[in-house]
Amino acid sequence: MEETQGHTKQALISVCLPVSQPALIGYRGFLLTCRFAIPSYFTLCKGRTLYSVVRDAKVVLDVNKTRQIAQEMVKGMGYLHAKGILHKDMKSKNVFYDNGKVVITDFGLFTISGVLQAGSRREDKLRIPNGWLCHLAPEIMQQLSPDTEEDKLPFSKQSDVFAFGTIWYELHAREWPYKSQPAEVIVWQIGSGMKPNLAQTGMGKEISDILLLCWAFKQDERPSFSKLVDLLEKLPKRNRRLSHPGHFWKSAEYVK
């Protein structure tokens, strides 16, 4: 049980997600007191994280399977957004995959302190875990600084879509984008709207088109999750095995 900071009064947040939405973990409620955060009910996640699955060379990920995984994710996220809930920390480590079933976890629980638990925050430096930055939308990246509080970061439905785009990339490249790039470089590239050269990943045009929509620099140009359901459904069915991660970054080749 972890002690929380910054809560001055008791609050009760009821999410009440139905069992009929299998892509979401089934919280019945979440009780916050001035000292502790206690889940009143939760469903135990089965299977492996999607992060682990995509990095397993023994797992075959063809286009049909990656689409099925993505479809379950976008339907689950569409349900959350319809209920006015933002995820704020959408990443493959918060998605579980077991026997073709996808479960999204940890929605709405983002805190800066949670992200920084593997590092530390000082007056002039912000230490962060590997892979976190590539999920942040440009508008969030532009506001990120060592003294930033989470309630000041402009999370939105569109920033959740941007983060999904990174998972979509990960499903096909089987690695995070901006691999091995220093944090300062990633912040500058995403914050200024620069994108990786997708040609080196071997993605087909239909796949990269969806990715670029999710990664659009302007928020209002990113599709909603309900729109993504339609876009994924229109992808042609193919029987093609996607290769295990390679080293795609020969130089700083980026497109805007």
Question: What order do the SSEs take from the amino end to the carboxyl end, as H and E?
Answer: EEEEHHEEHHHHEHHE
**What's the CATH topology label of the largest domain?**
Transferase(Phosphotransferase), domain 1
Mean pLDDT rating: 73
CATH superfamily of the largest domain: Transferase(Phosphotransferase) domain 1
Largest sheet: 3 strands, antiparallel
Count up the domains.
2
The span between the termini is 45 Å
Number of helices: 8
- What structural class results from the helix and strand content? alpha+beta
Strand order of the largest sheet: 1-2-3
Helix content range of the residues, please? 25-40%
CATH architecture of the largest domain: Orthogonal Bundle
Low-pLDDT residue intervals, each spanning 5 or more residues:
1-20, 24-43, 117-121, 240-256
Query: How many strands in all?
Result: 8
The CATH class assignment of the largest domain is: Mainly Alpha
Shape: globular
Computed CA radius of gyration, to the nearest angstrom? 18 Å
Strand percentage, roughly? 5-15%
Organism: Pleuronectes platessa (European plaice)
Pfam families: PK_Tyr_Ser-Thr (PF07714)
GO molecular function, one term: ATP binding
Protein name: Protein kinase domain-containing protein
